[in-house]
Design brief:
- The chain is mainly alpha-helical.
- The protein has a single domain (3-184), classed as Four Helix Bundle (Hemerythrin (Met), subunit A) (Up-down Bundle), CATH 1.20.120.450.
- It contains seven helices and two strands; from the N terminus they run H-H-H-H-H-E-E-H-H.
- It has helices spanning 3-30, 35-38, 49-64, 79-82, 92-112, 131-157, 171-184; strands at residues 121-124, 127-130.
- It has a two-stranded antiparallel ribbon with strand order 1-2.
- The chain starts with a helix and ends with a helix.
């Protein structure tokens, strides 16, 4: 296997891992919320978690439907509508289903991409990008929005928040645990 192919395979694996990690973070934060929490707007000109999810769903669907053969900004996308606050918590189950379907679209695409695809050209709003650049653009975009979801959820839950990473004050204990596990192998 050439170094170029190996590098491309490594990049694809890294993208898969990053996107799955971001989805997992968001999912674990969302699980801690009630449907009403999804609609909380923390400050004027801010977005509720429901709006962030709506936007991510719209973006995932637009970017990754027919990714290699059509512009990443689909003419049917209603981006401005993604930022309209839902009127009722009753929409949360539907948003959750849309969220799962949109991420599945991305994961199926990532599983289908081949190393040679990374240098192909795709467009987003008519602007040419390599597949590599387009996917990296979305990694950054989704990391940003997942951070918003986690931060908002943490603020909403307060003392009831269940940490998604190493709990405060337990870094040394966590590192020691990792080292002990590595030494047992």
């Amino acid at each position: 296997m050439s170094d170029t192919v190996q590098l491309a395979e490594t990049l694809l694996a890294s993208f898969r891992h990053s996107f799955r990690s971001y989805k997992s973070l968001a999912d674990r934060a969302l699980l801690q919320l009630s449907p009403t929490d999804w609609l909380h707007v923390p400050a004027p000109e801010s977005n509720s978690i429901a709006v962030v999810v709506q936007h991510m769903v719209g973006n995932l669907n637009s970017r990754f439907t027919y990714f290699l053969s059509s512009d990443g900004e689909k003419p049917t996308r209603q981006r401005d509508q993604e930022f309209v606050e839902p009127s009722s918590a009753e929409v949360v189950p539907e948003l959750q289903a849309q969220w799962e379907a949109a991420w599945l679209l991305l994961f199926d695409l990532l599983d289908a991409l081949q190393p040679a695809d990374l240098l192909r050209t795709v467009t987003i709003r008519g602007e040419a990008h390599t597949v590599l650049a387009a996917v990296q653009r979305q990694v950054t975009h989704y990391a940003y929005h997942v951070g918003q979801i986690v931060m908002s959820a943490k603020a909403l839950r307060g003392a009831q928040w269940q940490t998604l990473s190493i709990p405060r004050g337990q870094s040394e204990q966590f590192t020691q645990q990792l080292q002990n596990t590595a030494n047992q192998v």
